[in-house]
Amino acid sequence: MKALHEGGVVIVTGAGGGIGRAAAQVFAREGAIVVLADVSRTAGEEAAHQVVQSGGEAIFVPTDVTKGEEVRRLVSVAIEKYGKLTAAFNNAGIEGPLAPTADYDEAEWDRVIQVNLKGIWNCLRFEIPEMVKAGKGSIVNTASALGQVGAWSMPAYVASKHAVLGLTRTAALDYAPHGVRVNALMPGVVETPMMMSRVFKDNPALMDILKQAHPIGRFAQPDEPAEAAVWLCSERASFVTGEALACDGGYLAH
Questions:
Q1: Euclidean distance between the first and final Cα of the chain, in Å?
Q2: Which of 134, 135, 154, 176 is least enclosed, having the fewest CB within 10 Å?
Q3: What are phi and psi of 206, to 5 degrees?
């Protein structure tokens, strides 16, 4: 069977760790050249090196997705080096601190919205024109299961992920006539360094509460939502656009 992304060129943001790093590996395994982007040069270069060590082709472009000019450069590098952009996984995001809505720090609110929402819009506005020129392309934006429901003490994160779904659906409507598909991925809790070292380290009781909220009885490993994103970006999902695909262990089912 033909590889899902044979001959393709794919951008992955937030590729330094977690779902992004796993997705870079899966895209490469499925035949794509992968352009990795992350705000951390060390993590991004390490992730790209891992792809190459596994037999894939990859480059790393340091990118802060909140800065339009850096995202413009990211897309330009992909086009100038490889001549096309067939797919993109806009995955960069942060969780922000935990605090009740009225107590949330304004600077932290702005930071979460900038990365999680403006960052994805920046990616869309530079990726889409290249795909429109080619007459086809596929984009997946990382939202969250919390893009559908609320959560205690995560107002900025939850608001940003709800907004990502709205942005995704609007972009899907705008560009479906041009052959460009835009979908969102809604992971549940994923066992990433971000979650384990920052969220659960300070809130150990939260780990048990959230695990019980996933009917499968565990958290996802990074490669599980990564596989879903790679499929959504492929031609095997050719009639899927404007969709929010849950990969959440049943979290939203109850």
A1: 37
A2: 135
A3: -65, -30
Strands (E), the chain: 9-13, 33-38, 57-62, 87-90, 137-142, 180-187, 244-247
DSSP H/E element including 178: none
**Average pLDDT per run of 10 along the chain, which is 254 residues long?**
91 97 98 98 98 98 98 98 98 95 98 98 98 98 97 96 98 98 97 69 75 92 98 98 97 93
Tell me the whole-structure pTM to 2 decimals. 0.96
Residue 72: partners with Cβ closer than 8 Å, 6 or more residues away: 126
Whether 157 is catalytic is yes
Of 104, 157, 175, 251, the catalytic one is 157
Q: For position 210, what pLDDT does the model report?
A: 83
Q: Report the topology of domain 9-193+221-249.
A: Rossmann fold (3.40.50)
CB of 142 closer than 8 Å to CB of 185: yes
CA distances from 100 to 63, 103, 206 (A): 31, 5, 15
Give the Cα-Cα-Cα angle 87, 135, 232 (nearest 5 degrees).
30
29 with 35: CB under 8 angstroms? Answer: no
- How many Å apart are CA 19 and CA 25, to the nearest integer? 10
Any bridge partners for residue 182, and if so which?
139
